[in-house]
Every structure is written in C-alpha cells, then in structure tokens.
Design goal:
Layout: H1 2-26, E1 31-37, E2 46-50, E3 53-58, E4 60-65, E5 73-78, E6 86-93, E7 99-105, E8 110-115, E9 124-130, E10 140-144, E11 147-152, E12 157-162, E13 170-176, E14 182-185, E15 190-195, E16 203-209, E17 215-222, E18 230-236, E19 239-247, E20 253-258, E21 266-272, E22 307-312, E23 317-322, E24 327-332, E25 340-346, E26 355-358, H2 362-371, E27 393-399, E28 404-410, E29 416-418
Parallel strand pairs: 25-29
Antiparallel strand pairs: 1-28, 2-3, 3-4, 4-5, 6-7, 7-8, 8-9, 10-11, 11-12, 12-13, 14-15, 15-16, 16-17, 18-19, 19-20, 20-21, 22-23, 23-24, 24-25, 26-27, 27-28
Amino acid sequence: MRVGGGHAARASRLALFALVCLAPQLVRADFTVTSVLPEIETGARAVDAHDSVAYVVDDGVTAVDVSDESAPRVIASLTDLDLRGCASVAAYAAANGQKRLAVACAGSNALVVVDANAPREGLRVLGAAQDDTALSGISSVVVKGTLAFVTAPGVQRVVSVDLAADASPRILSFVKLSGADAVSFAADNHIAVGAGYAHGGGRVTILSYVPSGVMMKVGSIKDGRLGGELRDVRAFPADPAIAFAATDAAGGSVLVVNATTRARPSLAVGLQAQGRAAATAPLSSEDEDVDAATGWTPNGHRSLAGAAALAMGGNRMAYVASADAGSVVALDATDPRRPILAHVVSDTKLRGVADLCAQGGRAAAAAAAVASVPAAEEGAETPAATSPTGGPAVLYAVVPGANRLLVLRDAGGSAIVPNDEL
C-alpha cells in the first residue's frame, strides 16, 4: 500500500508538472500579437485612437485603419514644423463633437491641435500653442472637455491649456513642481502628476483644478520605489482615486498609488522586475527559482523589465508595456489596490515599446470602465467596480527606432504566451 501510494503521489506530481509546463501552449491564443505594421514614415513614439483608427505620432502624425486587426493599413499622414519630436497624443471630441487630436511635441515645445474628424480624407493642423519656456520639453497630455493638461519637464511645470478654439489654443495657468514627467486625470476635478528622480523626485502629486484651468496642489507622495525615470502614470477609470505609475526602478516597476485621501496619497502595492518584492505568479514554467507550490519568485516579474507605458482597458484590466522584456503584461485589477499579474504576451518585436493604448482610445476605455461602476451618492467616495474584471480587449503598441505599430488581442485567458513567430 505504501508503494502504491508513492506511485500515486509521483503520478500526481507528474500531472502537476505537465499542467504547469503545457499550460502556456494550451491557451496560446489567449493573448497574442495579431499583426505588425512596420516602418511608419513619420515615426512611432506614442499612440491613441478614435474608434477603429489609431493615431501614431513622432515627427508627424500617421492615421492607421485598425478595423481589421489582422491587416492594419495607413490611411493618412501629416507633417508640420510644429509636429517634431512628439511624445504624447490625446484623442478627444471637441465641444461640437468633431474628433480632434492634442499632440505634445517636445521638438517644437508646442501643443498641436489636429483635425481627425475624417481621417480617410486627410489630417490637418488646426492650431498650436507654442512656447519655448512654458512648454519646454512637453512630454505628456490629457484632455477633458475644453481643457488640456500637459507636463513640461524642462521647466518642471504642469500647464493647463484652453482648447475651446481649435485655431488658437492658449495657455491658461501653470503649477511648478519638483518635477513633471507624466499626467493623468484622477477622481473628480483632479489630476495626478508623476516625476522621477531625474527631476528631483520619485513622486506622484495630486492637483485640483477649476474650469478656468487654475490648479492647486492637494497632496503628494515621495518614495524610492518611484525612483529612476518615471515613464507613465494613469488613473484607473473604474476607481479614479487609484493611479498606476510605471518607472525603471528595480529594473522596471509598476506602483499603485492610493489617493482616496488626496492630501496624503500612499503606495498601495508595487510589482517589480528585480528583487524579492515579487508578487503572485511565476512568469513561466521554465523560470529558475520558481516555487511551483506558491508561485513566488525571488527574481521578481521579469516581464516588467523596462516598464515603459500603461493602458487601461474598458474591461478594467491594467496593461503594462515593458521595453526591455519585449512584453505586454495584463494586470487583473478587480481589486485595483492589489492587482494580480494575470497574463503576458511576449514578442521580440515588442522590444523597445514606448506607448500603449486600448481599442477606441483612452477616452473610450475610461468611459467603458466608468459605465460599469455603480453611481455614488453625493459626497461619497468613488465606488469600486463590483462586476468581475476581464473579458477581451484589443491593444495598440508602438516601438520607436523600428517605427512599428503592433496590434494585440487579449481574449481574457490567463497564461504567459510566447509569440515570436510573426
């Protein structure tokens, strides 16, 4: 009986080993790169989308029809003296419903408004706010209504811009901080601003704003885990009191900032590429030092190496693009204060990835996520989502240097998926 029990135990271990080893292959199609559009002529440093058109920016703007995920195609491109070294783009609707792009261009120190209402008929510059001092090194832009907020690392400022008149966007106000690299909207009339050590900080700051664009500092958190170069910060639409920050600290980290108490934001949790502050799931069955029983790995989440960009899906997943690992990581944010690494797509063509957005663009993803959250009573905290996180999503990633756009599909599975065959 003892021998038989030993055989049974050994068989169980072998079955578990086979399940762990073969799982990535069995669910291979759950998260994958569906297509690659190479060598975009105007370059590829940032991306956002309106509906089924993705807009890729660098030294110009290129409109890509992504209605067929397997065959993206360029439908228009635009160059202009102000469209140089553009590092961020926000797709938005003007007050009259027309589709617009706000493009942050460090090469010209300008925020450029582009008409994207009929991209198949072409793109055109409508106006620009250009200022070599106020917008020095402009690196990030978000838009809500007729207000844009941008970061200007060259002068360590957050700047508000009035977009009510397409032809003449104008600077309204600014706040000087210890650093300002990336900006995102937060709960109510607030924005979250991230800055890395290069600008005095490793810090996320919460600012309030009024319709005139005047901003006021509410609170901030400074922490070594936010150190190095801070690449991106994004509020989680289903709970805008939560922000995700991506930095190159510890080889690549994603930090969750809880700003429910806005005057005293705090770090809720962090996932990183190196060190022993690793989280819940092994990267793959082939990783050394993985405890198969617990899923804990002392080497961290290697798929976060070079964490460079964040995207929030309408499915309330948080996605992280990692330049050094050549991967996109999906975080299950059912509890956004403790996200779980759900699944990863890895592809050599993602090496050097710089930006990421979900289908329909950041505004559409935010609207979809918020629509699923129960309404809060007046004066109450922003409620968290109650329905499960997950479901399919389509993502667009851009890689500078190679100047390529990649289309990815997340079918909602949960496994590490190598995908180097394209």
